[in-house]
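Hi L.,

As promised, Glycoside hydrolase:
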Amino acid sequence: MKIAYILNTYPQPSHSFIRREIHALEAQGHDIYRIAMRPSAAALVDPLDQAEDAKTEHVLAQGAAQLGRALFRVLRSDAAAFFSAAKVALDLGAASESSRTRHLIYLAEACYVLERCNAEGITHMHAHFGTNAAAVAMLAHLLGGPEYSFTVHGPEEFDAPRALSLGTKMHHAAFTVAISNFGRSQLCRWAAAEDWDRIKVVHCGIEPARFGDPAPLPKGPRRVVSIGRFVEQKGQLLLIDALAKTEDPDLHLTLLGDGELRGMIEARIAQHGLQSRVSLPGWVDEARVRSELAAAHGFVMPSFAEGLPMVIMEAMAAARPVIATYIAGTPELVQDGKTGWMVPAGDADALAGALDDLAQATPQKLTKMGEAGRVRALARHDVAVEAAKLASHMR
């Protein structure tokens, strides 16, 4: 198949799962055309992201005049389809927290995407996230383009399902993908019952070949690593509070990532006097992520809201026990007491207790947990297997 991936901002450092899925589909013989509305505003430090950027066409970079010309060409070609799609765009704008004008811009983007898909011979469009990329794919389809599907990750889509018109987008889609059974259950809340059979579960995947024999647990003081954007939902501020409550003064935390809360996180670290126990390297490439996991005794994900974090899969594939919260699809992967520890979201005392349990556990127990997690992650989240599922739904 020749598939267009319709994306909002791509590539981004936090969206490596999309890149892996694309590469897996290409390895299976499919031709992937990448088209994003805009490039990332963040610096791309990973060479793989930089290579993806060079392969991606960015719609808004074409300029308003180019989009306007595409709109008028589509209008002249099929006025009935154009005005039908325009009505849907206006209805979406009325339901959303943004304006009708913004959704008319999505319509212009869809006209450009339609022309590019026709020129490239695209047979199917797939979007990630139920936000504007899914809207553009839907409108391009209603204008006469190929069928489309989209993957919903959460939690943002679940925070505003009506504003995003998820039901409408799912109704017009050939199918919709959830990344966990929990995610599918939430989509069923907003889809018409007759559309439920077209809501599929396809997990995000990891590349098993990148996770050879895991490094043995390091010697010395216990170390944990956490990876993610520095935003409220990831819970890093609570994690700092929990670290301050732990019993082991040598337990060290590395926070990989960056974002708008960096200043607040640094202030919270200073407030607790934890400067010597917390490292903040910023965004790093995949090789550095693997080296940080190898240097750690465990991985911690204190999120308040999630879909199903890729970094948990990667930590488990690296045979590291995981501390995570009982939210969204995470309990479908992490097994409390077997592959790590599960704690209630937002509970600093429970999180501190899990960190203490990890710090006090024997190397043998941590190794056994890590091995069980590795088996589970590789069995459930092989990107080649999941990409093949996605392709079968597209067919």
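The domain at 211-380 is CATH 3.40.50.2000 (Rossmann fold).

Thanks again for sending the construct details.

K.
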